[in-house]
Amino acid sequence: MTSTAVIDVEHLHLSYGDFHAVRDLSFQVRQGELYALLGTNGAGKTSTLETVEGHRAATSGTVRVFGQSPRDRRAVRSRMGIMLQESGFSPDLTVKESVGLIGGLTGRTDRVDRVLHIVDLTRKAGTRVSQLSGGEKRRLDFATAVYGTPELVFLDEPTTGLDIQSRDDLWATVGRLREAGSTIVLTTHYLEEAQQHADRIGLMHQGTFHREGTVAELTRTLPAVIRFGLPTPAPALPVQATREADGRFLVETFSLQKDLHVVLRWARDNGLELRDLEAGPTRLDDVFRAIGTE
Ligand SMILES: Nc1ncnc2c1ncn2[C@@H]1O[C@H](COP(=O)(O)OP(=O)(O)OP(=O)(O)O)[C@@H](O)[C@H]1O
Questions:
Q1: Do 150 and 81 contact (CB within 8 A), yes or no?
Q2: What's the predicted TM-score (pTM) here?
Q3: What residue ranges carry the coiled-coil annotation (predicted)?
């Protein structure tokens, strides 16, 4: 990864009438990075992305993509692939015709059969769009975004409606795009996918960043957890714990390995079984749940 900014957003404001949907938002996405723009419902992610993609004008502030205004479509459009939440495919066209048509509009060159193979729609090449399943339509959306291996790819909720195999395939394709040097901007409500794949995350709430950083930077502010059940009566615990509604004990810790070791040794020394034991690092879900409580 180099430090070249592919996307540079400075003090972006977006208003709809009197309503300020995005307020003083600044961020950069560097070349080769996978940047996830996440947030609560109505946080302003779509409004921000639409501006970066060139579909919407900023109320104030500057947005640069490859050093140019994204409103200058001729300068930037052929360099970016966009997977929207819903694409407007013509229902009467076949899959092959749709990819050929929309791919051609991108100004990039590629082979339709190659793209169909990538998204596993080769067998559906002659099928009309109206006869595709929801997941197949989503893969068709993805096909148009990866056509011609663009330098910058926007993926808006890319795996919604996809079965697990298709999700794995999509992420494998994203991995290959990154190996080819593409920069990826992702929005998703599947936080585990962002946790697994994103280099950095911008976490939006009410029009601005609640947090921004790597997954480790976002999660390190909250404790990791250990949970387990015990037979009663049990001897006094060796670490501080609270009792949850289901009767299990909850240990919150910033020293997961050390405290887990203490608990396991205590259980062994006392001949106790730790029922339904769970231990894990802080997840992005926890960071989300903490929004509004801080
Ligand atoms: N055309 C519009 N006119 C007026 N208000 C709008 C318009 N589009 C969006 N908004 C408002 O701006 C805010 C941000 O919307 P946006 O769609 O950008 O959020 P989001 O983060 O993508 O949300 P979600 O996760 O729910 O899709 C919301 O409160 C929404 O109601």
A1: yes
A2: 0.86
A3: none
